[in-house]
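User: ok so my PI wants both of these folded by tonight, can you help

Assistant: No problem, let's get them done. Here's the first:
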Amino acid sequence: MQTVGGRYEITTQLGEGGMGCVYRAKHIQLGKVFALKLINSTFALHPEARSRFNQEAKLASEITHPNIVSIVDFGEDETLGAYMVMELVEGEPLIPDGHGPMSVKRACDLLIQISEAIDHIHRAGIVHGDIKADNIMLSTETNGQRRRRMVRLLDFG
């Protein structure tokens, strides 16, 4: 298995985008599982882009909101380059395959959650820059007897 930053062991690939690949990774000492994004080498070669990535990661790591995935670590691996570590969201994409249209009530609930997340990051001076269905996950929150679908905005940087 490949190690990133001397702390994270990559187990499986979760996805791939224009800026890099996202992996399931386990913190070696803590045993906790996270999502780890490795920035692709083309992007990482540009000092300005790397600087912007680090600045955005630092700002985003200070954000706490129930609809925003937490960034827990970021850094630069000597071999693999820049990386960002986020909480791993267990859930499904906003638009899962094979599902028909959603009810107006459900759509409104999800749009309110997305809007609250975007408002929160904008007030912190952060622009997400890539809001799309692929970067929005739905997880289930249980509060006593009540279950609710929660929007989770992902993929900063």
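One down. Here's the second:
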Amino acid sequence: MTNHHDALLAAELGADAIGFIFAEGSKRRVSPSVVREVVSEIPPFVSSVGVFVNVTLEELHRIMDESRLDVVQLHGEESPAYVREVRYPVIKTFRPRPGFVLSDLADYNVHAFLFDTYSDSRQGGTGRAFDWNLVRGADTYGRIILSGGISPANAAEAIQTLRPYALDVNSSVEVSPGKKDRRRLVELFDAIREADSKKGPLC
């Protein structure tokens, strides 16, 4: 999120968590001062997440403390040793491709694992889905969050296929980078609620 309006709208529609990007070069990057103001206005039951890519621990903790966020999302090549030094609950991102080894997840003691689409040129925000079969069984190692091209059109399929702990959605519900589209957000949450109501036993 980049502004008060979109954050409050997402919370109103049912978001459990709202993310703020601090990564260098991102069109959605926000300052700690803006994030702190937004976080002060969202309901207390909605978690706030700071998204980082390969920053020093000192910088990460400075921004998290200043912004008053709840959870860290690491979207780079952060090691298990790095993760152990983070003072906040951690969501660690992986970008699976053929050959991805699920057992590598065991090295990370984190709040959740997030799976996003692999790209040679960018760390995230591709707007494209990946082969979800690559992460079947990942929930053996902890909570899983599914990202990468999740939209109103495929959110229900994602829920029915992998039963993720959460979905991470961004560009598919925007009219432009950093600006959310109310209609698409409503469609997304409608699709999620419908899928949740139809959950049956896993195959």
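The longest strand covers residues 47-52. Strands lie at 17-21, 47-52, 71-74, 90-94, 112-115, 144-146, 166-167, 174-176, 179-180. Good luck tonight!
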